[in-house]
Amino acid sequence: MGIYLFFICSIIASSFCSVCLAVPASLASATDSPSSSADSLALNAIDNAHSWEFSGAMLSLPRSSIATASVGHMAFFAGGRLQNDTYTDVVDVFDRRTGKWSVSHLSMARSEIGAGSVSGRYAIFAGGLDSTFKPLSLVDVYDTKTNKWTTIHLDTPRGSPRIMDLGSVTAIVGGLSGDLQYLSKAVEYMGTSLDSAASSLQTEYPQFGVAVADKTSGVGIYTSGYQNDRPGDRFNDFEQSNQTSIFTVSGSSASIKVGLPFPSPRWGAGGATANGLFAFGGGHVFSSGDSEPSTTVVDRVDLYDAKTGQWSSNPLSLSVPRDYPLVQAVGDYIVFAGGTDESKDLDILDTRTGSFVEDLQHRPALHTLRTNAAAVTIDNCLLIIAGGLVYQGANATASVEMFNACRS
């Protein structure tokens, strides 16, 4: 049975179709990297997960719905919702080279921002919602080479666009459009010059999914989540989505094709990739009840092999069901955190073996259970989890938990 929601209440098989876009030469220029005396360091994740070190810190403001991005040795925690449900323009910045935090500001306060990196040089904070829930086209850009902020604009205003760094090109995908269609199919490509080129998802229905990208291979996947089966109607019909879009970048050409359907459609999954293995885990499904749909949180993890272009027929299981888990790649591992009040433990998938690490005497774990928090990885080896809501979602927190798996 479909889930019907009135628009103003909605705020909160082989590949058979493809579209290719000739990206402007300026978008496909060589990847820049921030200048630093530390750039020559070889930074890798420690092979033994027992050795991950824990430390804590604090954001400048307690908040949730934080947009996160990492570029070079820096991590950014931007905007979000304060305890009184107003929005903020604050950006907390952590520099791994110095181990110090600083504070900056977006050009305007907002939440539900899409965040990511462009060409190894820029941190971008795209779109979002203002205090009236209006989708925005504003993009704040931090240049790690000049240490300066600038602003540009999306062609299509959107809340919560998904950002995929595909190496020479970054794709800004989908989001909440604010029209009767509600979910956007818009795609914009951005490169070193910050010029943009427009495209569109080729899915049958507008979709709000999970975006995971491997910037080394230039492959990204947009899948799962939910779709609107009645676009343009007064009432939306949101359904669990199995639509999958495969993004690839090669030279000056970016392409999107419709891929094999997601094996287990659901809302609220999280994903990450390492060593060519894409993992999508957790989330929830709806089933028909006597009066209202019932929700079941799942522990399922679906794997996609970028080399074969196939979904695994043998899904894995998390240690506990997790809804909207925080998922990050840390070296050869993919880490699942939060999304449950049953356990503070991290589930750690070793992509070299395709299985979860089971032999940890003391599994790395969160110190504070939280929802609607932020997660980011610096240098592919330092996992940071920050902010969110604690005490059954009643209070925003400023606490930061850092799991260090780095060696030089």
From TrEMBL:
Domain of life: Eukaryota
SUPFAM superfamilies: Kelch motif
Keywords linked to the UniProt accession: Kelch repeat, Repeat, Signal
Signal peptide: 1-22
InterPro entries, A to Z: Kelch-typ_b-propeller
Residue ranges that the Swiss-Prot or TrEMBL entry lists as coiled coil: none
PANTHER family, per database record: KELCH PROTEIN, RING FINGER DOMAIN AND KELCH REPEAT-CONTAINING PROTEIN DDB_G0271372
Protein name: Galactose oxidase
Species assigned in the record: Coemansia umbellata
